[in-house]
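Figure 6 in text form: structure in, sequence out.
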C-alpha cells in the first residue's frame, strides 16, 4: 500500500473495500473457511494490502463472527447491518464513514487475487478522467468455465467497454470480481433502478449498463479462481499447492 504521508488530502485516498457476507446459499460462512489453514478473508485482505495504489483496506461485513475475526487479527472492518442487494450496494453504504476519492470493490471470495490487477483498475480511472467505473476481466483458459453458471462472462465493444454480462456462454472473456469507482458513481449505484438484466443474470454491473453508464473493462492476467462452493475452495488449495511446488 501507499504511505499515507504522501497524500495531500484525505479526499485523494484510494480505498480497497472487501464485502464479506456470512450467508450464502452455496457456501455459508465462506469468508472464514480455511484455505490451507488460513481463513479466506485474511488471504483476500493480505493480497489487497500488497496493491501499490491502495492507501487502506477495509472489510465490510454483516456478521459479528467475521468482524470479531478481523478485530482479533488487526484487519480494519466495518459492520453494515442493513440488507444489501449486492456487494457494491454494501460498499456504497459506508461512503459517509470512509474518506476517499476512488474505491475498489474487491470480492471477498477472490483469495488469490493479484495485487497488480487491483492497481490496473485504479490506474485506468486515474489516467482517464472520463472513466468513472472499471471492471477487470481475464481470458478463459479452462473449458469448464464456459458453461459454469458461477463464472460470469462478458462481451465488450471495440474500446473495451462492457456490452453485456451473462452466466451463460457468450464468449471467452471472464469477468472478475474486481471493480473500481469514483466516489460519485459509487454513491449513485444504490439509487439506480434495478433492471431485468441484472435480475435475470444476477450480475451487479449490469445496473450501470442498463442505466446508461459505461463500464470500462480492464484486461489482466489472472487465474480466475473465485470461491462460490466448497469444491471451488479445494480447487484453490490445489492451485496454491502447485504454485508452492513450482516456487521450490
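Output sequence:
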Amino acid at each position: 500500500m501507499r504511505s499515507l504521508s504522501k497524500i495531500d488530502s484525505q479526499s485523494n485516498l484510494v480505498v480497497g473495500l472487501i464485502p464479506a457476507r456470512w450467508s450464502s446459499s452455496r457456501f455459508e460462512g465462506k469468508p472464514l473457511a480455511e484455505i490451507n489453514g488460513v481463513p479466506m478473508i485474511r488471504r483476500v485482505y493480505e493480497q489487497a494490502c500488497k496493491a501499490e495504489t491502495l492507501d487502506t483496506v477495509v472489510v465490510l461485513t454483516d456478521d459479528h463472527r467475521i468482524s470479531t475475526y478481523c478485530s482479533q487479527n488487526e484487519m480494519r472492518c466495518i459492520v453494515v447491518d442493513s440488507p444489501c442487494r449486492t456487494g457494491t450496494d454494501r460498499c456504497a453504504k459506508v461512503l459517509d464513514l470512509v474518506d476517499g476519492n476512488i474505491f475498489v470493490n474487491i470480492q471477498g471470495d477472490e483469495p488469490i487475487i493479484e495485487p497488480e490487477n487491483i492497481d490496473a483498475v485504479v490506474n485506468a480511472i486515474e489516467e482517464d478522467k472520463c472513466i468513472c467505473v472499471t471492471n477487470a476481466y481475464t481470458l478463459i483458459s479452462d473449458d469448464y468455465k464456459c458453461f459454469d453458471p458461477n463464472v460470469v462472462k462478458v462481451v465488450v465493444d471495440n474500446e473495451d467497454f462492457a456490452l453485456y454480462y451473462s452466466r451463460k456462454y457468450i464468449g471467452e472473456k471472464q469477468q472478475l470480481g474486481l471493480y473500481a469507482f469514483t466516489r460519485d458513481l459509487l454513491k449513485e449505484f444504490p439509487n439506480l433502478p434495478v433492471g431485468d438484466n441484472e435480475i435475470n443474470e444476477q450480475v451487479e454491473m449490469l445496473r450501470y449498463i442498463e442505466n446508461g453508464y459505461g463500464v470500462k473493462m480492464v484486461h489482466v492476467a489472472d487465474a480466475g479462481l473465485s470461491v462460490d462452493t466448497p469444491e471451488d475452495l479445494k480447487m484453490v488449495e490445489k492451485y496454491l499447492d502447485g504454485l508452492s511446488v513450482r516456487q521450490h
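Caption detail: The longest strand covers residues 173-182.
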